[in-house]
């Protein structure tokens, strides 16, 4: 199933994408109308997913609405925890980053793990705010996102994919000046509303092998990144296993699995996103994020 979080008639709904149509289960009835319906579905476990599938098969016309991109929110608009992210998880990207930072490259023995604030998440077609007083070096990173279904601790590699609820696309937008100035990645990865996710979550049954997905990123129509998840240093199963040795993974946790080469800061000369630019990130079988960079007029209180 392709699952979407959708704003319709002043409400935020869980919806199922079928072709160009959305089926909104709470319009059928017998389904709770919750703003964080995606998290409720994930936390409900496999039985609830079966119920949703049953409910939306042969759904009545009154529950079907035409897909309107501007109403699509991030599939999990407000995750319960920071996103867990892998750094330098593709050899070609690890090498370009090392060269740009004048470091020697060595194949890592363990993944680099950092987190991203939940408030950095934004919709798949939302504008990304740009404020030169905060950062003049916004960079793109197309990534496969993994959504945990069944939680667990000490998960073995052979069992790890059974813990995946589904997959999504993430643009791990990064403020390079902040990232390097503050040493740790967190702040430069956490600008408000900077990181698009979506457009949907594809349930794991439809992606039996997450290591065979093409990733692409364009800026103003020019291809900047093109790779395949088969080139990940730590694959999805290994990543889940490693993370779960240290902490309990919980339903709805999100893992961004790293970006391939072609990011802006490692280019000669370096390139960054500016107001008016359009950045698009696509993961095969999931869909494409499309976001415009827009100057923020003034900082607004939360
Ligand atoms: Mg990244």
The hetero molecules present are: magnesium ion
| Helix proportion range | 10-25%
Structural class, from helix and strand content?
alpha+beta
Nearest-angstrom radius of gyration?
Answer: 19 Å
Treating each run of at least 4 consecutive H or I residues as one helix, how many helices? 7
Q: What coarse outline follows from CA principal-axis ratios?
A: globular
Order of helices and strands: EEEHHHEEEHEEEEEHEEHEEEHEEE
Span of the ends, CA to CA: 35 Å
Q: Find the count of extended strands (DSSP E, 2+ residues).
A: 19
CATH superfamily of the largest domain: Fumarylacetoacetase-like, C-terminal domain
CATH class value of the largest domain: Alpha Beta
CATH topology of the largest domain: Fumarylacetoacetate hydrolase, domain 2
**Can you tell me the CATH architecture of the largest domain?**
Alpha-Beta Complex
User: Mean pLDDT, rounded to whole units?
Assistant: 95
Biggest beta sheet summary: 12 strands, mixed
Low-pLDDT runs of 5+ residues are none
Number of domain units: 2
Measured by DSSP, the beta-strand proportion falls in 25-35%
């Amino acid at each position: 199933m392709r699952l979407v979080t959708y704003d319709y008639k002043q409400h935020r709904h869980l919806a199922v994408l079928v072709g160009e149509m959305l089926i909104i289960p709470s319009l059928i009835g017998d389904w709770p109308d919750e703003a964080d319906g995606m998290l409720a579905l994930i936390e409900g476990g496999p039985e609830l997913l079966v119920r949703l599938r049953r409910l939306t098969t042969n759904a009545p016309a009154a529950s079907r609405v035409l897909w309107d991109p501007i109403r699509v929110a991030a599939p999990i608009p407000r995750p319960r925890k920071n996103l867990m992210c892998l750094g330098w998880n593709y050899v070609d990207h690890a090498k370009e980053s090392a060269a740009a930072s004048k470091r020697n490259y060595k194949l890592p023995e363990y993944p680099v793990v950092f987190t991203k604030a939940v408030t950095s998440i934004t919709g798949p077609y939302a504008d990304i705010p740009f404020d030169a007083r905060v950062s003049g070096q916004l960079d793109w990173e197309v990534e496969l996102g993994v959504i945990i279904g069944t939680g667990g601790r000490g998960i073995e590699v052979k069992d790890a994919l059974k813990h995946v609820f589904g997959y999504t696309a993430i643009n791990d937008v990064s403020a390079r000046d902040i990232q390097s100035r503050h040493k740790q990645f967190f702040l430069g990865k956490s600008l408000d509303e900077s990181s698009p996710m979506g457009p949907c979550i594809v349930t794991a049954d439809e992606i039996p092998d997450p290591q065979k997905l093409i990733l692409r990123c364009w800026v103003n129509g020019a291809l900047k990144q093109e790779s395949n998840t088969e080139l990940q240093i730590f694959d999805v199963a290994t990543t889940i296993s490693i993370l779960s040795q240290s902490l309990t993974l919980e339903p709805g946790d999100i893992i961004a699995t790293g970006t391939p080469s072609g990011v802006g800061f490692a280019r000669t000369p370096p390139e960054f996103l500016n107001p008016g630019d359009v950045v698009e990130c696509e993961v095969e079988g999931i869909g494409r994020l499309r976001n415009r960079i827009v100057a923020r007029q003034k900082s607004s209180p939360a």
